Fold this sequence. Notes:
alpha+beta
Amino acid sequence: MIDTEKIKRSATAIIEAIGENPGREGLADTPRRMAAMYEEFFSGLGQDPVEVLSTGFEEDHKEMVVLRDLPFFSICEHHFLPFIGSADIGYVPDGRVVGASKLGRALDILARRPQLQERLTLQLADSIFGTLQPEGVAVVLKAEHMCMTLRGVEKPGSRLVTSASRGTLRTQEAIRREYFALIGER
């Protein structure tokens, strides 16, 4: 459970710590807005992606299923700044498929936590593989990290790319190549 009152107090303390007046007109409601923002950003902490992915359909489809260019954002646990990007998710069903929106919801549940992109990639692949039990699954995330764009090395436009694969998408080169061709990668 997110303690919004504690976030409001902390936000007020930050405003004071930078030398601003938390009571001035433009800042007076900022602690409440920050608390609401963090409550939304970290809403995945109390949710399980397995519950979302468990709602599927028995289907005799055994060919590649790919959802491309799925937008997401998360908050880097090192600086509490966002990273924003897209996901490409593919799996080879073994008699069970899931609605495309469920893949997006699972991604959002995992992304809406303090995260590392590398961990997020692995968690999504493992959740899909463990719940749907497909022949294989692959996930590629590409994201721009504001901790690199706005501060530190200040390299806007750079993207971190991470991938995870399980089952046949890890072990069978032809299936792996098909996935990367479908997502537009070499």
